[in-house]
Write a structure and sequence with these properties.
The complex is a heterodimer of chains A (about 140) and B (about 475). With about 140 residues, chain A is of the alpha+beta class. Chain A contains 2 helices and 8 strands. The chains are: A alpha+beta (about 140), B alpha+beta (about 475).
Chain lengths: ~140, ~475
Amino acid sequence: MGYKLINPKADIGIEVWGKDEKELIEESIRALLDLIEIDRSQIGEKDSMTVEIESIDSEDLLISTLNTVIYLLDAKKFAIKDFQIENLDLKNYRVKIKFIGEKWKENKDYGITREIKAATYHNISIKREKGVLKTEIIFDV
Amino acid sequence: MSKSIFKKIDDFRWMLPQDYKQGMKVPGIIYAKEEMLDEIIEDGSHEQVANAAFLPGIVKASLAMPDIHYGYGLPIGGVVATDIENDGVVTPGGVGFDINCGVRLLTTTLTYDDIANRIEDLIDSIFDNVPSGVGSTSGLKLSKNDAKRVWKRGAQWAVEMGYGEKEDLEATESFGYIEFADPDVISDKAYDRGRDQLGTLGSGNHFLEIQVVEQIFNKSIADSFGLFQGQITVMIHTGSRGFGHQVCTDFLKVMERALKKYGIYVQDRQLACAPYNSQEGADYISAMACAANFAWANRQIITHYVRKSFEKVLNTKWKNVGLKVLYDVSHNIVKLEEHIVDGKKKRLLVHRKGATRAFPSGHPELPEIYRETGQPVIIPGDMGRASFVLCGTQKAMEETFGSTCHGAGRVMSRHQAEKVAKNMDVIKEMEKRGVIVRAASKRTLYEEIPEAYKDVSDVVDVVHKAGIAKLVAKMRPLAVVKG
């Protein structure tokens, strides 16, 4: 699994791949955390937040998951160090993820250099190529 | 692909014929100079113009302004109007995530010579007073009840709370709030994201700038607007912050489901939509209005902080130096407006995504002060070159649903810009150009170098010559706060 940056003019994007949906979601979350450049070495592990995400198909599941991550960072002020997918229901397009990290501490520099407004549905399409699931994701910055 | 895909209408209008893609309900029309077309094609943004032409209820044409560039869903610079009495849809992708991102211009009675040696102090004070940068938060922590008041009444609420004056509202599009905002359709998530972001600039391309009027193109309108050569102005460019982003995110999910429910086909999922006459459509419009109102309150509160900065540095009441709102315009919004289509008056949902309303003289929605001249149109440029004031025209009303361009438009991706900028000292380079820069983050500074943008002069030249706004004045930046 992995990802690489793609560069539309106004926004920012990634091409991401994994052997299955679980890896694709995991790698996309990692890519998002990399994009905002949050310094995960600075984040403790004492808090956790578990979220359940519902969607209508695989693409919606992926985008909704990323938008949940953005919400946790921006609104819940939850600095994410790590995460575990606890349950992935591909029949009903649901996922349960435990995020590990800490509640934002005022005056602590988490190194974030980029504000991402949202993950978009722009031309989103997950395809299987040579046994690997692949998609592009555009973020609005 | 070559520019032969376009049919020339005149020197500034290029048609993407309806048969460009099977299923287009109307043609596309792009406002541009011929030399801009190659870039548009290379960019792929003409495809997004074509995609929007599939939307149910679209009338006349899928339009794009000369600052068109590739976005998601609708291109940036896109204008789409749908007929609400003819299955017209509303699409959050036709507005964008930063709902009611817009620009406000404050005029002063000061000239450059009056404050030449105080500009650095002024920008430092503004940088201190207005929270900016990634995830910037303000001292205003909104309770749920206060938040609801902001969502309902926008800048009106801010003025009632002491962040300005009634005259500021007169000089704000829609008088600072849209009536049909309904707080009941707002999610807890959206409330959470906006609760401590009111009165903040944010990051990305948002900025606050002290400028000087460098050139007057239309003396009579400039006089009416109170603009004169050598005058100091202040420009505020920001939007609805995390609150608006979450509203858009929430409703894209709603619209994804609505596509299936109403059997609507879209070319790009980011254009997911619902009929205006549906619960989903009505709810989005009510929520969008809440976010638009949040943005107007945001720019109003920032105006207050700017006035406080001038008071502190110049040691006088802000009114003594003017600091009047010339106008506040939105460039990411959808509005219900009346327009003439094929000789008939229609109620249309006009989506402007990276496009500015440009109503002409005599339009009933304009305040008294601009009834004779037409509406001021504020066009921000990049931080090194220029910004402009234009005025709305009857031709815009006839051709573009009363719309015109919104800014410069990028020519470099953020990554490209960062690569170029890393080899230079941006702050020093800007100083050489006579612009003092304060930035919350280096990255924004890199991504926002002037070279990353089209020259806004070329963009406004097209809309002026095409007649969909007329040039009034040009301002040069003196000092900038970047988020």
